Amino acid sequence: MIEARAITREGVNALLRLKVRPDQDGLVAPNPVTIAQAAYEPQSWVRGLYEGDRPVGLMAMIDMPGHPDTQPHDPEDAAYLWRLMIADTEQGKGYGAAALALAFDQARVWGRSKLAVHVVEREDSALDLYIRAGLRPTDIVEEGERLLVGPVPPAPAA
C-alpha cells in the first residue's frame, strides 16, 4: 500500500509542505521540525511515506537500546516510534495502519521485540490506531503524552 523511503534532496520539499489538519496541531511536530531534529538524533530512522510517487506522510523511529537519552522507565528491547504524521488530505485511507506495519517491520530489522510510542490522549489523536495495533497504555506520562508499548508481531507470511 505505502512505502517508507529515505528522504532525498528531490523529495524533501514535498515532505516539508505536508501538514495535519488545523485541529490536530500540537498532536505531532511539524515535518520541518522532525527532519531538522533527525540530524542530531542518534540512531534515528526518518522516512517519507509514499503512495506511488505521492508523499502522504512522514515517520521517524529510534532504535532505543544504547540510545544516550534512555530513561530507567523506558521499555527494554524496544524500537521507539518517535513521530508518525499522515497529511490532512490523506487521513482516513488506512495509511496510519500501513505506517504502523512498516514500523513493526523496522523493529524486526533491528531485532526488537517491542514497539513504543508516546501519544496525546485526545479524542482526535492516534490513540485508537495504536491500541488496534496491539500497543497498550502504561502508567507513564511524559510532557502530557502517554507511553504505549506492545509486542512486535511476527512478520506476515510471504
What does this structure look like?
The protein has 158 residues and is an alpha+beta fold. It has a single domain (3-151), classed as Aminopeptidase (3-Layer(aba) Sandwich), CATH 3.40.630. The protein contains 4 helices and 7 strands, in the order βααβββαβαββ. The chain has helices at residues 12-17, 31-38, 95-109, 127-132, and strands spanning 3-6, 44-51, 54-63, 78-86, 114-120, 136-142, 145-151. The protein has a 7-stranded mixed beta sheet, with helices on both faces. Strand 2 and strand 3 form a beta hairpin. The radius of gyration is 15 Å and the shape is globular.
- The coarse silhouette is globular
CATH class: Alpha Beta
Helix percent band: 10-25%
Low-confidence stretches: none
Instruction: State mean pLDDT (0 to 100 scale).
Output: 94
Q: Judging by the overall fold, what is the CATH architecture?
A: 3-Layer(aba) Sandwich
Q: What's the total number of strands?
A: 7
Described by its quaternary structure, the protein is single chain
The number of helical segments is: 4
Distance between the termini: 15 Å
Q: Reading side by side through the largest sheet, how are the strands ordered?
A: 1-2-3-4-5-7-6
CATH topology call: Aminopeptidase
Biggest sheet statistics: 7 strands, mixed
The ordered H/E elements are EHHEEEHEHEE
Q: Beta fraction of the residues?
A: 25-35%
**Looking at this structure, what is the CATH superfamily?**
Gcn5-related N-acetyltransferase (GNAT)
Radius of gyration: 15 Å
Derived structural class: alpha+beta
